[in-house]
Amino acid sequence: MIQIYTGDGKGKTTAAVGLAARASKYYEVLFLQVIKDGSSSEIESLKKIGKITARNFGNGTWIFKESDREKEKAKVLEAIDFAEKSYSDFQVIIIDELVTAVNLKIIPENAVLDLLNKVPENVEVVLTGRGATKDLIERADLVTEMKEIKHYYKKGVKARKGIES
Asked: Do the beta carbons of residue 65 and residue 45 sit within 8 Å?
């Protein structure tokens, strides 16, 4: 099965982390993160849970220039390759922010569709990120959209340790 958590609201990564924790009771879980630099607490927290392998493949820089996009592209493609080679070792594979990488045109949508088309029946794949495309949504078995209704960030509240970072 393929799941996608998308939308402009907070909670996509948090939902994926929760699924990883729940799944680790029964399965080997691989949690990969792209674009982000791995400094937020979810990667370190997941590494403390048995049966979860967590790796970061992001530079953590804002994507403003084409050179930023090219640096990130290499990392994202490395993560995709790592995920594909891991199908036989893990029953749950989560790739945080992969949908965002497509949305920001860091990688072509076909790279993700190719990855998804190779998923064995016994593997659950979860992708997160803003701006899931029509084709990604169509390919998924479950799509959840996080919709921002209200956010304290707009009142000037910065990311808080352990809550947003």
From this structure: no
Residue carrying the six token digits 């729940």: 22
As given in the structure block, the two tokens for residue 102 are: 């497509």
Domain boundaries, the chain: 2-148
* Strand (E) or helix (H) holding 100: helix 98-103
DSSP-derived secondary structure letter, 164: T
| pTM of the model as a whole | 0.91
User: Do the bridges between strand 29-34 and strand 124-128 make them parallel or antiparallel, or are there none, so unpaired?
Assistant: unpaired
How far is it, in rounded angstroms, from Cα 76 to Cα 57?
6
Domain 2-148: CATH superfamily, name plus number: P-loop containing nucleotide triphosphate hydrolases (3.40.50.300)
Does position 114 have pLDDT exceeding 90, yes or no? yes
Query: What secondary structure, in 3-state letters, does 105-122 show?
Result: CCCCHHHHHHHHHCCCCC
